[in-house]
Amino acid sequence: QVQLVESGGGLVQPGGSLRLSCAASGIIFSRDRMGWYRQAPGKQRELVADITSGGTTNYVDSVKGRFTISRDNAKNTVYLQMNSLKPEDTAVYYCNSKRGVTDYWGKGTLVTVSS
Question: Which residues pair with 10 in a beta bridge?
Fold first, then answer.
């Protein structure tokens, strides 16, 4: 079975940094597009960043220059480095794996940016 397990969330002050990790199993990791989504209270889930099997990255405008997505195929892990965090980044962050029309999701990890 497919499992995506996020870690690294927590409470951080504005301007601080966190690195999220997503460990994948049950998929051919190196072939899949991996992504991070987030959902803030009262809002719809949105794509934050994704990375193709070839290493091409994509970011929502609000995080460009602050967040970096990367993948380590040898470890079956995708990362989201988040710098210069803002209160509006507060959300549950979800790991996603995509191949064609098939999607898999992690359970999410909560990031709270507050002083």
Answer: 111
